[in-house]
Structure formats: C-alpha cells, structure tokens
C-alpha cells in the first residue's frame, strides 16, 4: 500500500443512539434581542466577545465586550443572526452554558446559566469550576 492511499470503512449503526454535541453557548430569545439592540447603533462592531477573568471572591468572573473582529482562537456562536465570540480561555468554562438577559425592578443584566460551576460568591458575580 502506498503512503498516499488512505482507506476508510463505513458501517451502518441501527441500535446505537447518536448523542448530539453540546453547544459551546446557547442564547435565549431575550439575550438575542438584547444583543441585537446593543449592536444596532454600532455598525463598526460584528458581535460581542465573552471572556473570563480572575477576580472576585470566588475566582473567576465573566467579561463582555464589543468586538470588531474574530481572533484566531475565538469560538464563534451564531444564533438567530447574532454573533457571540468566546475567548480561548473561556471556552471550556462556558461549555453547555445558556446566556440569558433578565430585567427586574433593580437590575438589567446578562445571566449565564452554567452547569459546570461548582460554587459562586454571595453576590453572584464570581464563580469557580
């Protein structure tokens, strides 16, 4: 067999369930609408960038910034016409997370419902994994 020849075998699988892959980040309709509104008056930006930083009383906190371009190592999430980029450092910590936007009498904020978090601080701003 020559070095340039590659062989593959295909098998039909009927009894095994194929599990769907987990999305890096999913957005709720409220989050999509808010991101769309935020970017509406800023045509120079292509989306939001989500990252994590070491700070707070429990270790890590989320960062949100506008971005003009996709960095080489960013993971892109495109949902309902809205683009969110995840920094490389944040990709594993955000796996399977839902990003929501919540308005109450006291605050309006993005909320990250993250199944990977082991603990949070009392105010809910920082977390550990």
TrEMBL record:
Q: What is this protein called?
A: Iron-sulfur cluster assembly 1 homolog, mitochondrial
Secretion signal, residue range per the UniProt entry:
none
Q: GO terms for biological process?
A: heme biosynthetic process; iron-sulfur cluster assembly
Family named by the database record: Belongs to the HesB/IscA family.
The terms describing its cellular component in GO are:
mitochondrion
Gene3D superfamilies linked? HesB-like domain
MF GO annotations: 2 iron, 2 sulfur cluster binding
- InterPro entries per the UniProt record, alphabetical: ATAP, ATAP_core_dom, Fe-S_cluster_asmbl/transfer, FeS_cluster_insertion_CS, HesB-like_dom_sf
């Amino acid at each position: 067999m020559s070095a340039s020849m590659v062989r593959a075998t295909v098998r039909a699988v009927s009894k095994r369930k194929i599990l769907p892959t987990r999305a890096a980040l999913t957005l709720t309709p409220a989050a999509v609408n808010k991101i769309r509104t935020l970017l509406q008056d800023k045509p120079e930006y292509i989306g939001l960038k989500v990252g994590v930083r070491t700070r707070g009383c429990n270790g890590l906190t989320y960062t949100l910034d506008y971005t003009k371009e996709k960095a080489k190592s960013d993971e892109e999430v495109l949902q309902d016409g809205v683009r969110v980029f995840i920094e490389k450092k944040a990709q594993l910590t955000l796996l399977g997370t839902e990003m929501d936007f919540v308005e109450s009498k006291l605050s309006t904020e993005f909320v990250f419902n993250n199944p990977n978090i082991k603990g949070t601080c009392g105010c809910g701003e920082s977390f550990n994994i």
